[in-house]
Amino acid sequence: MTAARRCTDLSSLSPPPALLSRLSSAASRLLQTRQYGSRKEGDGGGLRNARSSSGSRPGFIDRSSWRCFDSRAVGIPPGAIPVNCWSVLQMLKRKGFEAYLVGGCVRDFLLKRAPKDFDVITTASLKQIKQLVFKRCFIIGTRFPICQVKMRGSTFEVSSFSTNPTQVKGSKNLNCSEQSDGDDQGDILRWKNSLKRDFTINSLFFNPFNNRVYDYVNGVMDLRKNKVCTVIPAHVSFKEDSARILRGLRVAARLGFQFSSETSTAIRDLSPSIINIDKTRLMMEMRYMLSHGAAESSIRLLGKYGLLDILLPFQAAYLSDQMKGRSSDRDLMLMKLLANLDKFFSADWPCHSSLWLGLLAFHTALVNYPQDAQVIKAFAALMHFGTWDSAIEFLKQDVGAPAIFVPEALGPSRAKLDDNLMKQTSQLASLVNSSVDTFTSLDTLKQSLARYSKASQFSGVVFVSAKERSRVLGIFKGLDSDLTSYVETRGMHGIDYRLLDYGDTGEVRFVLGKVILDTMCEESPPASTNDAAAALAKPGADRADGDHRPLSSLF
Questions:
Q1: Residue 90 pairs with which residues in a beta bridge?
Q2: Which of 39, 200, 356, 398 could covalently link to 219 via disulfide, CB atoms 3.0 to 4.6 Å apart?
Q3: Rounded CA separation 524/522 (Å)
């Protein structure tokens, strides 16, 4: 352990005189000048707010923001790391390399959340990783290449400290050689890598072999403040990589965090730049936002910062029109659909993108062609239960008043349980099928936007692939024909999250029907004995209990 980094231990030990001397000397230097690490209360980022003083002490390293602490003291038990991830770490260790968990998984551990994935960083080069450790891995990426390692059905991204991506502009004046004498080289290595990362709360390192968490850019402090802050100046960071804007929104939506004022301003200023992101990358970022239990909050944040106009212009136009004279969007059908979708998913229990695309296509059809509430429930019940007879049986038992949404659902219900209802249900399925093209065809999108007087203000991109279009259409296959012969029943009761993540059509259809029924019925009976429990028992949403110290005790 170096004198430069603060280390919070469970025991209080009196430092030796030599250590006190070094600390005193360091304190004197810090009083003279503090380049990196100074920041205003409520804002974030050790590197961002000190650029004005860079000319006075080029290469100065402010070690006052360096911290480490025992992971066990804050409730990260050794068993928190999955077995397959442990195998990756141990294989690197056995070959003589250091290996750490890094990024969002460390952040989630500290917040007592289930990580979405586990990223590893090592002192081995990518060449050494492939030649000496994981000979079947793949090196992917151009700007920041990594090794994709498969371990018994799980996939891990392993990066190297030695990888040199495009120069980080915000830290171009850094030259750690001037004052790195006496520093632990591991500290320098981790510190330099942390400056290349997007947000402070994603710049934490966890060494499970010595139970240490390392923080060099005040990431834990921002976790305490529920803040999302870039590591380098926000405008510089987002100009370097505009996808960081979407990643920031994703993190804020999932955690319920706020942006620092500087980060928020930069997002507003640079939001149009995301139109230049590759469509495959856009789809990936949207999948991360909407598939992991934070769809409602993600859509709300995208709208707040003007990004919904670009990514989902029809939904942006709908919300803008519906919010006239309203103070809250929570009673809008779109937001209720998304809220009910989120109840089933979490970071480690995601859904396939075809589910939320199908949900958006369904809602788009209702906005353009409002339907009787009974028809909507019949359509949802048919998808959920798998046969027309089962759907009718559900409707007979459903005596509650249907929810009424304007303009989507007409009420009170006038449809009867007869052949005409079957015909109307098939027609709705046909309309939903047509609405899928809103996400794949610019012409269809423009036609849908024509209903809004301010449609000319909405300019967007179409980023859903033809393959995804086919998957979504598969959900509604057969629903627009003779429903008496429609049979798509399932052989189990609860939700199979493995099949759902894979995009199994039957599983996606089953859950989509349930989400719509929950939205349309004030009290819809559970479709099975296990569904309600599966929806509520989301491991990613659980907080780990136990005897541990809060983050506030580390400072």
A1: none
A2: 200
A3: 6
pLDDT digits (tens, 9 = 90+) for 413-468: 666 777 799 999 999 999 999 999 999 999 999 889 988 876 555 566 889 999 99
365-391 burial, b for 16+ CB within 10 Å, e for fewer?
bbbbbebbbbbbbbbbbbbbbbbbebb
Nearest to 429, CA basis, from 493, 392, 382: 382
Secondary structure (3-state) at 128? helix
Strands (E), 145-272: 146-151, 154-160, 204-207, 212-215, 227-228, 258-259
106: its two tokens: 């460390």
Calculate what percentage of the chain has a pLDDT beyond 90. Answer: 64
Tell me what pLDDT residue 433 has.
Answer: 96
Q: How far is the C-alpha of 416 from the C-alpha of 288, rounded, in Å? A: 41
C-alpha 214 chain-centroid distance: 23
Q: Write the CB contacts of 464 (distance below 8 Å, at least 6 apart in sequence).
A: 283, 357, 439, 440
- What is the distance between the alpha carbons of residues 209 and 120, in angstroms, rounded to a whole number? 13
Buried-exposed string 155-173: b where 16+ CB fall within 10 A, e elsewhere: ebbbbbbeeeeeebebbee
Q: For residue 6, which phi and psi values (nearest 5 degrees)?
A: -75, 135
What pLDDT is attached to residue 507?
A: 96
Is 412 buried (19+), middle (13-18) or exposed (0-12) by CB count in 10 A? exposed
Q: Which residues contact 232 (CB under 8 A, 6 or more apart)?
A: 45, 47, 48, 168, 169, 170, 171, 195
Q: What is the pLDDT of residue 542?
A: 39
> Cβ of 91: how many Cβ atoms within 10 Å?
17
Tell me how far apart the alpha carbons of residues 59 and 256 are, in angstroms, rounded to a whole number.
Answer: 36
Distance CA 67, CA 215 (A): 5
Q: What is the pLDDT of residue 415?
A: 67
What pLDDT score does 175 carry? 47
Q: Are strands 409-410 and 67-70 parallel, antiparallel or unpaired?
A: unpaired
Q: Which of 96, 67, 89 is nearest to 2 (CA)?
A: 67
Distance CA 194, CA 77 (A): 24
Q: How far apart are CA 539 and CA 345, in angstroms?
A: 9
pLDDT for 416:
74
Q: What is the mean pLDDT of the chain?
A: 82
Low-confidence ranges of the chain (pLDDT < 50): 1-4, 8-42, 44-46, 49-56, 58, 166-178, 524-549, 555
**Cβ neighbours of residue 210 closer than 8 Å, sequence gap 6 or more:** none
**Number of Cβ within a 10 Å radius of residue 25:** 11
Q: Give CA–CA dist 259/111, Å, rounded.
A: 17
The pLDDT of residue 459 is 63
Can you give the pLDDT at residue 143?
A: 77
What burial letters (b/e) apply to 489-523, b meaning 16+ CB within 10 Å?
Answer: ebeeeebbbebbbebbbbbbbbbbbbbbbbbbbee
Q: What is the pLDDT of residue 153?
A: 86
